[in-house]
Structure prediction request, 332 residues.
Amino acid sequence: MKYNLLGKTGLKVSELCLGTMTFGGREVIGNLGQDEANDLVARALDAGINFFDTADAYSRTKAEGMLGQALGARRSDVVIATKVRIETGPGPNDLGLSRGHILSAVDASLKRLGTDYIDLYQVHLPDKLTPLEETLRALDDVVRWGKVRYIGVSNFPAWMLMKALGISDRNGWARFVSLQAHYTLIERSLERELIPAIQDQGLGLMIWSPLAGGFLSGKVTREAAPEGSRRASFDFPPIHDRNRAFDIVDVMREIASEQNVSVARIGLAWLLHQPVVTSAIIGAKRADQLDDNLKATEVRLTDEQLARLDKVSALSAEYPGWMLEHPWDDRV
Prediction:
């Protein structure tokens, strides 16, 4: 297992992170009980994972408690990331990024996780009803009070991310150290503006759903998704060009055969070969799924294999990117 610095912090996190959306029995993508969660967490720890991602909204708060229980005395050995924003209860203020909700939510997450600090507290989604200044000031307070060590953001567009960083810098507040986003061989839109932005600002990059909801496992065919699979009942994240996506999987399948590994490992390995990626968040319903994902760290793609994957998955030209890439400047 390789360990990477989380952005400009001195915090080292494993290149694979165990996600907990399958914990709790309320999510369509998983219904694991505590014993099963304990086993997955133990397997991840044994494999060298020191990074765990959850959210207060997962299984309506249940996943956080299950993760805390599964870690037990190992809590001090790991980095815990959780999130705030999505609805956690029936009340009108049981969601959002207001100061009131953040201060209540962070205390509730600490209690469920069984810890007195959260390593990485992330904004799950933007909140158009709350000014960024209010959100960022509340996040700075929970950092100064010692309840949170670092803050991160998820699913923000580049312009909003840069605006938030500017507000934090102007006021001397804690700034986001990481972005959690969706990035796969079939969804490389991140490369247009968000990756240049986080590289410029020195943010770490965590990848959610690195196998595109199981699509990149190679088990989904042009005809159908296997019965009982996540894609069969929950077609998310959306795939906007399925023909292109299946063309990509065809190349992945060829390379998987050359490497004598699963198609899923190729999808994860491609991400781990991208220098911008800090950690890919893997989730599993079964121990064998987790074990296979963990072995992606052992896959070494050749330059030729990487070039084939890049060619079949490359983004189409888009303005102003193609304008900026034109060699206008004869000083270079």
